[in-house]
Structures are given as structure tokens and as C-alpha cells.
């Protein structure tokens, strides 16, 4: 057992208990401070209280410190004594005021090699910076995306208006028949009129009549070819001049309707005879197809050796129109997936005297049109721009500018639609006949044809 400042402390092996009459130095200092503060709070106290010198151990006289310097001072007993805070396990009391809701502090390793940092701790500071860095790039990305979207919208609008102003618009003339029963708000019928004349004002015979039906509800398009030799009635038109209408003398081939009354009479004739609504048309001359097909870089076609030689006859006329030398683009051999340019593709579409005459000719026209659509689908933005510019530059239509605007917006979706092909009349819906002028015509079974149109387009 060892002694320290007059008190006995048990050693590690045990021994006598310490003398409790000898209080700890700091405990005695605390009691003396408490006494002094009590005297200060007393209203009867008018004398200044000397400061206790703690470090010099001058605590004043205490009954248990008789051997220390200082004089005894009477202890006040008129005020209840304050309770002392509980002592720690070591018998030494912590100085300072009691803290509320105190927590045990975890051991923190301090790296003394790093410079001192004031304010926010390094861990919190790094976390805050990480949060800022994590949030800031998202805002920048969203801002960039918004700018890109706005630029694309503006660019798209500029391109659409550029195409719109290339189109030639015509007012719809007088119509005599517009009460066909086959119509739907979900289907837009546009009559594609193709002629081998160089100017629509010449009113030549139409060599291609294709009704393009765009069904937005079902997501499909139907291309219906009308045979040019269909023997039909021209509604409200006195063809033979006898003063009566709708007689046998007022019948003629379908392709002659455009000659007599332009696009309006042609639409009336289709509505009256085939009972299908046609309110819009697009006119294009055959020679414009050369520029349109060349705009997409040509196309691949399948044709026989006989068809390759037969294409030379229409191409002879085309070369004169284009100012080409004799024999330009002639082919003598066919094959599968033969790449052809616009001049050759048009010669193929106009070929009439090889195969099943005009029946196969209309099939070739639908094939070229369908190939053109498929080629445009797989083209890049620059090629599509050339294609759209070429198409809009060569067409005349009674579609309004607003309708063209909406249609251009729909083109990317329409190109993805299912495409169907139809020929009117079908194989079992006509017979060969002779017109009043002695020409060879197709006598059409109109009730059967109307049923086919309703089934293939509207059902």
C-alpha cells in the first residue's frame, strides 16, 4: 500500500480501505467554490469574497485541512446545501456545468499529419461536395437535352415549310357528284393521277390512276389501281351532245374523264361508278418520276429479258424529253434485283406491250411505287430530304396547305404502315366489250367491284 498526499491508496493486491475523512483535493475545491457562490447569492452578504486560488491550492481554511494555510470561516447553515453531482468511478468529479442529452463520444482517430480544418468536418464537406457534383451534372444534361429538342423542333418546322412551298396548290373546281357511300373519318383517300403529258393544263389521258387509302386507325395503306379501259359513265356530262345525261352515249373509258373535265370530273366519275369517296387528288406527270427515283439513288427491280428489251420503246420518248443521246440507259438483259435509275424505272412502269397488256402494266406501276416507298424507308436523312424535295417540286394538288402540313408530319408513321395492293376490276369482275365508238373496253361488274372495295379498304 502506498501513500499519496496523506491518503492511503490500495495497491493492486488489495489492502486496507482508504481513509474517507481525507477528501480529494478537487472535491474540496468544489465545495469551497460552492460555498463562496452561496455567499454571493445571499442578500445579507455585503463584503467582497476573495477569489479562491485553485492552482495555488489556496482554498481557505477547512476543518479537514488544518495543516494548510488560511483561516477558518464559519459555514453558512441558513441555506440548504446543494446536492453534489455523482462522482465518477475514479472518485474524481468532472468540472464544468452538467450537459443535457449527452452522448458517449466515439473514439475518433485524428491524423495529426494533416493541416487543421475549421468549420465543416472533412467527411461532411466531402459528402456535400459529392451531393453537389451529383446533382449539378443532371441539371446540365437536362438543359442540354431541352436545348437540343427545341433546336430540332425549329429545324423540323423550317424543313416542313420548305417542302410546303414547293408544292403547287389548286383550288377544287365544281363537283357534280360527291355522295358515295364508302367513306370513313379514319381513312383518307387521295387519288394519284399520273399522265405522260408534260403539263397538267394539257389535259392528256391519264395512264395511271391509283387510289391511295391511308387508314390511320388500322395502320395500313392500300394502293388501288383502276384500269384505264374501264367503261364508265361520266356523271352530269353530256358526252354525245344529245341533251340527256347518263345514257349509253355518255359512257367512255375511265382515262378519258380527265380530258373532258379535269381532276374534278375524274373524281366524280370514280365516286359515281365505284361508290367510293374521293375528295383529294395529287397530279404528277410521269417524267417527274425520273427525278424522284434518282433522288433516292434508284431502286432494285425484277424483270425478264423480254421486259428489258420492251422498255426501250418508252425510253426512246423519254430520252428525247431529257435531251439524252439515242440508246441512253437501254437494257438488253433482265434479272433479279437489277439496280435501275429513274429513266429505266419509268420505262419499266410504262411498258404495256409485254405480258398481259394493261393488267400487267398497272401491276408494274404499283410495284415501282411500292419499291419507291420501301427505298425511302431505308434512306438516310440527306436522301430523304432530296426525296421529299423532288416529290413536292413536281406535284399539283387540291390539298390545302394545312392538310399538306399535317400529312408531312404523318409521313414517317405512314411509311411504317402495312401496305396492300388492289386492282379494279379483279379477274372475275369484268368482261371484254366494245364501246359506242368501236373501241375495246372493259365492261365492269360494278356491284362486285364495290363489294371488293368495301371489303379490302373499309373492313
What does this 3D model show about the protein?
- The chain has 11 helices and 15 strands.
- It is an alpha+beta fold and 459 residues long.
- Helix 4 crosses helix 7 and helix 4 (288-295) runs antiparallel to helix 9 (381-393).
- The termini are far apart.
- Mean pLDDT is 79; it is low at 1-10, 12-16, 65-72 and 89-96.
Number of helices in the DSSP assignment: 11
Strand order, sheet with most strands: 3-12-9-4-5-6-13
Structural class: alpha+beta
Average pLDDT works out at 79
**Gross geometry:** elongated
- How many beta-strand runs? 15
Give the % helix: 25-40%
**CATH class category label of the largest domain:** Alpha Beta
Question: Taking Cα atoms only, what radius of gyration do you get, to the nearest Å?
Answer: 52 Å
Note the run of SSEs as H and E. Answer: EEHHEEEEEEHEHEHHEHHHEHEEEH
Which strand-content bin applies to the residues?
15-25%
Low-confidence stretches: 1-10, 12-16, 65-72, 89-96
How many discrete structural domains? 2
CATH architecture of the largest domain: 3-Layer(aba) Sandwich
Distance between the termini: 113 Å
Main beta sheet: 7 strands, mixed
> What name goes with the CATH superfamily of the largest domain?
LCP protein
Find the CATH topology of the largest domain.
Aminopeptidase
Task: Give a short overview.
The chain has 459 residues and is an alpha+beta fold. It is 38% helix and 17% strand. The protein contains 11 helices and 15 strands.
Amino acid at each position: 500500500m502506498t501513500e499519496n498526499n496523506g491518503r492511503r491508496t490500495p495497491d493492486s493486491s488489495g489492502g486496507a480501505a482508504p481513509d474517507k475523512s481525507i477528501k480529494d483535493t478537487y472535491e474540496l475545491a468544489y465545495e469551497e467554490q460552492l460555498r463562496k457562490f452561496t455567499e454571493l447569492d445571499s442578500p445579507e452578504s455585503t463584503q467582497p469574497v476573495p477569489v479562491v486560488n485553485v492552482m495555488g491550492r489556496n482554498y481557505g481554511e477547512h476543518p479537514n485541512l488544518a495543516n494548510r494555510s488560511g483561516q477558518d470561516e464559519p459555514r453558512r447553515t441558513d441555506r440548504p446545501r446543494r446536492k453534489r453531482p455523482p462522482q465518477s468511478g475514479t472518485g474524481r468529479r468532472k468540472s464544468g456545468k452538467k450537459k443535457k442529452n449527452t452522448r458517449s463520444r466515439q473514439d475518433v482517430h485524428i491524423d495529426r499529419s494533416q493541416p487543421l480544418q475549421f468549420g465543416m468536418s472533412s467527411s461532411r464537406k466531402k459528402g456535400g461536395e459529392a451531393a453537389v457534383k451529383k446533382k449539378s451534372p443532371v441539371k446540365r444534361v437536362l438543359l442540354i437535352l431541352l436545348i437540343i429538342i427545341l433546336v430540332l423542333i425549329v429545324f423540323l418546322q423550317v424543313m416542313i415549310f420548305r417542302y410546303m412551298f414547293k408544292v403547287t396548290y389548286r383550288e377544287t373546281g365544281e363537283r357534280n357528284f360527291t355522295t358515295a357511300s364508302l367513306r370513313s373519318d379514319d381513312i383518307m383517300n387521295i387519288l394519284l393521277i399520273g399522265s405522260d403529258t408534260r403539263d397538267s393544263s394539257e389535259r392528256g389521258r391519264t395512264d395511271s390512276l391509283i387510289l391511295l387509302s391511308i387508314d390511320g386507325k388500322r395502320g395500313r395503306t392500300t394502293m388501288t389501281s383502276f384500269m384505264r379501259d374501264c367503261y364508265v359513265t361520266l356523271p352530269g356530262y353530256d358526252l354525245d351532245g344529245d341533251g340527256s345525261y347518263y345514257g349509253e352515249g355518255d359512257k367512255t373509258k375511265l382515262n378519258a374523264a380527265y380530258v373532258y373535265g379535269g381532276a374534278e370530273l375524274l373524281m366524280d366519275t370514280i365516286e359515281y361508278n365505284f361508290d367510293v369517296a374521293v375528295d383529294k387528288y395529287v397530279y404528277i406527270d410521269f417524267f417527274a418520276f425520273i427525278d424522284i427515283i434518282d433522288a433516292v439513288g434508284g431502286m432494285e427491280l425484277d424483270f425478264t429479258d423480254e421486259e428489258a428489251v420492251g422498255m426501250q420503246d418508252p425510253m426512246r420518248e423519254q430520252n428525247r424529253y431529257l435531251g439524252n443521246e439515242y440508246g441512253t440507259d437501254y437494257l438488253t438483259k433482265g434479272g433479279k434485283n437489277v439496280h435501275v435509275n429513274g429513266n429505266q424505272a419509268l420505262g419499266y412502269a410504262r411498258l404495256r406491250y409485254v405480258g398481259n397488256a394493261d393488267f400487267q402494266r398497272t401491276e408494274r406501276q404499283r410495284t415501282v411505287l411500292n419499291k419507291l416507298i420501301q427505298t425511302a424507308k431505308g434512306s438516310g436523312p440527306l436522301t430523304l430530304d432530296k426525296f421529299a424535295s423532288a416529290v413536292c417540286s413536281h406535284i399539283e394538288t387540291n390539298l390545302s396547305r394545312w392538310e399538306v402540313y399535317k400529312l408531312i408530319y404523318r409521313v414517317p408513321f405512314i411509311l411504317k404502315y402495312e401496305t396492300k395492293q388492289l386492282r379494279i376490276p379483279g379477274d372475275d369482275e369484268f368482261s371484254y366489250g366494245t364501246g359506242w365508238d368501236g373501241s375495246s373496253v372493259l365492261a365492269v361488274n360494278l356491284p362486285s367491284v364495290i363489294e371488293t372495295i368495301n371489303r379490302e379498304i373499309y373492313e
